[in-house]
Fold this sequence. Notes:
Elements: E1 9-14, H1 28-46, H2 49-54, E2 55-66, E3 75-85, E4 90-98, E5 104-116, H3 127-133, E6 136-137
Parallel strand pairs: 3-6
Antiparallel strand pairs: 1-3, 2-5, 3-4, 4-5
Amino acid sequence: MNTKSLEKYEKEYVVQASDIDMLGHVNNVVYVQWVQDIATEAWNATATPEQREKLFWVVAKHEIEYRRPAFENEVLVIRTWVGRAGEKLFTRFTDVVRKKDGKLIVKALTHWAPIDAQTLRPIKPGDDVYELFSALME
């Protein structure tokens, strides 16, 4: 196993007015977008040009636990890392944490399916993808 597969990818984000819903906090749909965006950023930062050319990823399942609200102008740390990979699905974890107090805001588990960039059909990627994007293979 490549130790790079265990590294966490993270970024800071300042909550914008456009992220806020009628209840005055970040809308749940915004968190789903952030989970997808950071996974894509992590893929682009880690995958080789050849891997990015051959594979796309689609979400098979999101599980999101909303722990606390976040508000406009708060600084959040969005962090993601890979979990186990099966033959058809790859697991990725994401946490959203408030920077000032370290409180967990959202916790997500997403199952991603690799698809062939040409045929747009599900595929089993090569061992190189498993090595980079799986902590353990099932």
